[in-house]
Amino acid sequence: MKNNTPEIITKSIEGYDVILPRLIYNLKPTVYEHYICEHPKEIIDKFIEIVKSDYPDYTDCMENFLNGHEMYLALNFVIRKDMFINWCDWIFDILFKIEKITDLTKYKTYNGIRGQAFAAERFFNVWLKYNIEKYSLKTKELNAYLLEDLNTKVYPFLLGKLQTDNKRVMLNILGIKIFHWRKNYKQSHKISK
């Protein structure tokens, strides 16, 4: 890692639309069963319901993925800006709908409270697989490294402040502000092949 200069990193990702960590495969049991072992079944079932009703084109891809045994973990990726906006529009639309129809205050454990985040991590794979095919995205996998123990070193520093209003969601992590505009306020962004 010490020999990775900005120039070397730029050259290694040049020509690709999406950079991903290595695929995790041979999950036992299925991706769906893996989720419900630790997280609220209700949340992933609502993800499935919303995708089927609001994004029916994704249904086959979703069912294949959830019944499969491989996935990309941790929402670690580098992606073209237009595709990142597309991903955010898609996932935040689903998350806001779940927030409206689910009493999330009843969850008290870490895995319950963060159930939506863990489901979103899995549904990134659904979105990704669908859009790789739709837009012929060129992908590359690279090794991912955990630099510190998350519970004692990194995790406390990554706790950001989430603010929402009728127009946008803003996540502030380490002074970096990430905005996502709600559907009725967003600007239109064209996705190019």
Detailed description of the structure:
- There is one protein chain.
- This protein has helices at 6-13, 31-38, 41-54, 59-66, 81-101, 110-113, 115-135, 150-158, and strands spanning 18-21, 78-79, 139-142, 161-164, 168-173, 176-181.
- It is of the alpha+beta class and 193 residues long.
- It folds into two domains: 6-145, no CATH class; 148-193.
- A three-stranded mixed β-sheet has the order 2-1-3. Strands 4-5-6 form a three-stranded antiparallel β-sheet, with helices on one face.
- Strand 4 and strand 5 (168-173) form a beta hairpin.
- The two termini are 32 Å apart.
Q: Keywords, please?
A:
193 residues, alpha+beta, 2 domains, 3-stranded mixed sheet, 8 helices
**For the CA atoms, what is the radius of gyration?**
17 Å
Q: Poorly predicted ranges (pLDDT <50, ≥5 residues)?
A: 148-162, 184-193
- Write out the strand line-up for the largest beta sheet, numbering strands in chain order: 2-1-3
| Share of β-strand residues | 5-15%
Task: Quickly count the helices.
Answer: 8
**Which oligomeric form is depicted?**
single chain
User: How would you describe the shape?
Assistant: globular
**CA distance, first residue to last residue:** 32 Å
- Tally of individual domains: 2
Largest sheet geometry: 3 strands, mixed
Number of strands: 6
Structural class: alpha+beta
Mean pLDDT: 80
Task: Give the fraction of residues assigned to helices.
Answer: 40-55%
Order of helices and strands: HEHHHEHHHEHEEE
